[in-house]
Amino acid sequence: MATGMKTLAKETAIYGVSSIFGKLLSWFLGLYWAFELQTIAEMGVITYSYAWIALCQVILTYGMETGFFRFANREKEPLTVYATAIISVVSTTLLFALLSITFLEPIASSFGPSMKPRYALMLIIILMVDVVGAIPFAYLRFSKRPLKFAFLKLLNVVLIIAFNLFFFKVAPWLANYYPELFSWYDLSNGIDYILFSNLVASAIQFLLLTPHMRIKYKFDWTLLKKMLKYSYPLLILGIAGVLNQSADKILFTRLYPDAAEAETQLGIYGQSFKIAIIMVMFTQAFRYAFEPFIFARDREESSNSNLKSYADASKYFLILGLLIFLVTLGYLDIIKYLIPKNYHEGLKVVPIVMLGELFFGLYFNLSLWYKLTDKTKWGAYMSLFGLVITLTILIVFIPHYGYMACAWASFFANLSMMIISYFLGQKHYPIPYNLKTAGKFVMLTVVLGAFMYLNFMYSPNVVFRIALNTIIVIIYMVITIKKELPLREMPVIGKYFRK
Questions:
Q1: In the structure, how many helices (H) and strands (E) does the chain have?
Q2: 352 with 407: CB under 8 angstroms?
Q3: End-to-end Cα separation, the chain, in angstroms
Q4: Mean pLDDT of 417-423
Q5: Is this model's pTM higher than 0.70 or not?
Q6: Which one has a higher pLDDT value, 306 or 100?
Q7: Residue 6's pLDDT is what?
Q8: Neighbours of 96 (CB within 10 A)
Q9: CB under 8 A, 24+ apart: contacts of 409-413
């Protein structure tokens, strides 16, 4: 492999391992909540709340992370870019927090009867702390410090889990022995404890980030205007993008015909969606390494070598993404036992959501053309188009098909954006993607996935199903390694794959 691809692979591995481990811990924590919270509807409230957090994070960072990467690689003084970005984001975030706290009660009531003002207050503080830390985290990526980045991200998850265990396990035990000291404790306040745990963990993470904010601050208004001009289409893109991912959870309770049942159905969907989080974290890990990689290489003159590296990166993303899909589908008989039985009815959305997330990851990879050519408005157009598809499907079909409409909305919206981005990219910034190879692996996955489906439908023996699915996964891996992955080029082990 070329040096650039080796760097990308190394950083993707670091980001990937930390992201996967962190997401897995969060995943298990989410499963744990399902056992500790008193109703499925409470799980629906948590799902709903964090969907809003995701949307507000995008709005309050308004594309400045990507803008920072772009201008830090172009300007002679990257620290000026860093300082300008921090000052801008901190100022707007503090203004948002002040206005939100001032109108806390009407804001909380607008979210429905289940959203209490104290929930809203904790969500605002969590949001404020996380948004202010976004640019320092981007600086760690820019500075090629994936280990520090990974450590802080993992620490946040570990702290959240530790505080949750305290509130749900340790505190009730202590309350039995020291009732006077723990008179405040009430297990029915499960949502409070979940949000407070997140708040404290985010605050600690931010404190550990502050050393990377101790710089000589030099605000450049002219530079900020350039960054905002570059980033504002990314804001529209980001809002549309996160709504494509979260609009189902935000709108579900408003569109589902049975208001009393809506939060319960959302809780079931939210837990089933967690199974598909494997594809989400793979996409996120790749993105963390891929974005700095493409901007750094773009500082050099455009060359066939660069274009080939971009094409290869997308090819490997597709191949590994399809492997993750097959592994998850093949072992769903095991994975489902991590979810309480009263959530199992929602597992039918897993393959649909996973494919939708794979399409989104491919869309991200294919869309580097508008970032490198500064035509970010096209990203906004495509995301808005995807959002129209998402909202149309949700509004029309949720009243009739419930959360299945949510899964198909993500699938078709991301598929449409992926296809459009490919054709526009070939017009504005042609990259020699190997569609023939991509098509072969997609067809291979379709065939193997069909065998898995038939195996699931007609084989009553779970052990036989798992054994056959294991063979199917091995077949895919052998074909992949033999045909495409660079293990063939590595010393010692490579000779076994060149035969």
A1: 22, 0
A2: yes
A3: 19
A4: 92
A5: yes
A6: 100
A7: 58
A8: 17
A9: 409/247, 409/248, 410/244, 410/245, 410/248, 410/352, 410/353, 410/356, 410/357, 410/360, 411/352, 411/353, 411/355, 411/356, 411/359, 413/244, 413/356, 413/386, 413/387, 413/389
Question: What integer pLDDT is reported at residue 60 of this predicted model?
Answer: 92
Q: In this structure, are residues 359 and 411 in contact, taking their beta carbons and an 8 Å threshold?
A: yes
DSSP string, 20-31: HHHHHHHHHHHH
- Sorted by sequence, the CB contacts under 8 Å of residue 204 that are 6+ apart come out as 155, 156, 159
Closest CA to 124 of 111, 138, 139: 111
Percent over 90 (pLDDT), the chain: 27
CA 309 – CA 304 distance, rounded (Å): 9
The two structure tokens encoding residue 420: 């459009």
Residue 229, number of CB atoms within 10 A of its CB: 12
pLDDT tier for residue 167 given thresholds of 50, 70 and 90:
very high
Tokens representing residue 129 in the block: 């702390």
Give the relative orientation of helices 221-255 and 64-72 as an angle to the nearest 10 degrees.
150
pLDDT (average), residues 387-410: 93
Q: 387 is written with which tokens?
A: 């959002």
- The whole-number average pLDDT for the span 175-188 is 86
**For range 150-176, the mean pLDDT:** 91
**Token pair belonging to 457:** 């439908």
The mean pLDDT value of the chain amounts to: 83
CA angle 219, 221, 223 (to 5 degrees): 90
d(CA 229, CA 96): 21
Residues 176, 85: Cα–Cα separation, whole Å: 50
- C-alpha span between 141 and 178 (Å, rounded): 46
Q: Whose CA is closest to 408, among 345, 443, 359?
A: 359
* Token pair belonging to 207: 């404190």
The string of pLDDT tens digits covering residues 62-85 is: 888 888 878 877 766 788 888 888
Among 418, 153, 416, CA closest to 288: 153
CA distances (Å), origin 222, targets 81, 215, 229, 326, 338: 11, 20, 11, 50, 53
The closest alpha carbon to 82, from 64, 96, 60, belongs to 64
Check residue 139 and give its pLDDT: 87
Q: Is residue 353 a contact partner of residue 51, using CB atoms and an 8 Å limit?
A: no
| The pLDDT of residue 122 | 94
Tokens of 449: 């996935």
pLDDT above 50 for 1: no
Q: Work out the burial of residue 178: count CB atoms within 10 Å of its CB; fewer than 13 is exposed, 13-18 middle, 19 or more buried.
A: exposed
CA 196 to CA 97: how far, in whole Å? 17
pLDDT in tens, 255-281: 999 877 888 898 889 888 887 777 777
